[in-house]
Amino acid sequence: MSRAAASLVMVVAVLLAAGCTSQGPEPVASATSGPSATAKASPTPTPTPEPTPDVVVTSGPDQDVTVAPTPPAALDGPATADNAMLVGKYFIQLIPYVIATGETAQWDALSGPDCKFCASARELGLEVATEGQRVTGGAIDVGFGHASEAEEEGVFSASIDYVEHPSQRIAADGTVLKDYPEATTARAHLELRWAEGSWKILGASSDDLGSA
């Protein structure tokens, strides 16, 4: 497997930092001075600030990939090149989620029976989950995509550019098992089939385009 293909498998979760709320100063009571003062002035209430919503990061290294990407309507067909490209992007976006959580239901629904990459990514996600390992970094941004119909009916080829952010795979004892310190750009090549009302990934590979 090439460095780019291995990198495509090694995407991982980054927990999203929650937004914070700012607190105003404590109210200070004031008083009138001098012998004519008969009562202290009431403190001026400080308005309670509205809570700031959590910031949802949808690109860059700080995406919360523990949340499954939203399935596109293209999953329901029809069999067009545009839909094949959208399904391909969704497939790539699923990779860090599978590695982060070990959840494979959506992945399995898309994986063709002979897709070796699909099987290896699934295996890695389950391995990380069951062996007490963890991963840091590895979020993916998808970019330009293109798809075209092949000669065989219902089969499409898609090419999708993506950026994978730095990642580490860490053992239960804290040992760094794998280290990918640089963000990389690559182009994924997917073969998809539309049959019996659903899409399947028949195969996947990628070309390394260098550092991001």
Q: Radius of gyration in whole Å, from Cα?
A: 25 Å
**Alpha-carbon distance between the two ends:** 21 Å
CATH third-tier fold name: Nuclear Transport Factor 2, Chain: A
Return the structural class.
Answer: alpha+beta
Shape descriptor reads: globular
Major sheet: arrangement of strands:
2-3-6-7
CATH class: Alpha Beta
Question: Can you give the mean pLDDT?
Answer: 77
Number of helices: 4
* Percentage of residues in DSSP E strands: 25-35%
Overall description:
A hairpin with a 5-residue loop joins strand 2 and strand 3 (155-164). This protein is globular. The model is unreliable at 1-40 and 48-53 (pLDDT under 50). It has one domain: Roll (Nuclear Transport Factor 2, Chain: A). With 212 residues, the chain is α+β, with helices and mostly antiparallel strands. Helix 2 packs parallel to helix 4 (116-130). It contains 4 helices and 7 strands. The longest helix has 21 residues, at 81-101.
Topology overview:
Layout: H1 3-9, H2 81-101, H3 105-110, H4 116-130, E1 134-137, E2 140-149, E3 155-164, E4 167-170, E5 176-180, E6 184-195, E7 198-211
Antiparallel strand pairs: 1-4, 2-3, 3-6, 4-5, 6-7
